[in-house]
Amino acid sequence: MEGDNPDALWMAGYAIGQFAGDLSTATSAIDRALALNPNAAHAWDVKGWLNLYIDRADAAIEALQPAMRLSPLDPEAFSVASGMARGHLTAGRYDEAMEWIDRAIAEQPRFNTALRIKIVLCELLGHRDEARVWLERLREEVPEMTIESFSAYAARHYTPALRKLYIGALRNVGLPEK
In the structure, what pLDDT confidence band is assigned to residue 2 with cuts at 50, 70 and 90? Predict the structure, then answer.
């Protein structure tokens, strides 16, 4: 189609997937962007996250790898590292996930998605005291976060099984219900 702009397409795909929850349309936009420019690191990042929303961990990791390779010094690299962590967490590879989430937090210590992943991983690995420390950090960044508010957010971005895993971990370490 004349006038296709890969950057506009991946940005539209991101917005449609993130805010409207229409993952099919979002994926189509991202795939079109990547057909036009296979070197669009941000499009690969978004493709990875869209796969995470439907628990396609290995497909997500596969999509995130070119994002990392194409733009290793990107100021948004924490998003890719967080996605890699969530992919490994979803696949049950908690130690690998922890390596990635530590990298993400080192790059952007205020990214609440990364902080949530860190809390969940600490809890899953039996490090409850450490998980509580990270919960305090999360609450500094997002003081209004509760189980109820996270559940509402997670309804769009987490499958039921992953939502249950996160909510259980967050509840166990003391995130308030309301």
Answer: very low
Mean pLDDT of 104-123: 98
- What is the 3-state secondary structure of the chain? CCCCCHHHHHHHHHHHHHHHCCHHHHHHHHHHHHHHCCCCHHHHHHHHHHHHHCCCHHHHHHHHHHHHHHCCCCCCHHHHHHHHHHHHHHCCCHHHHHHHHHHHHHHCCCCHHHHHHHHHHHHHCCCHHHHHHHHHHHHHHCCCCCHHHHHHHHHHHCCHHHHHHHHHHHHHCCCCCC
CB 114, CB 134: distance < 8 Å: no
pLDDT at residue 156, rounded to an integer: 87
CA triplet 66, 155, 149: central angle to 5 degrees?
A: 110
Q: How far is CA 57 from the centre of its chain?
A: 11
pLDDT tens figures, 20-68: 989 999 999 999 999 999 999 999 999 999 999 999 999 999 999 999 9
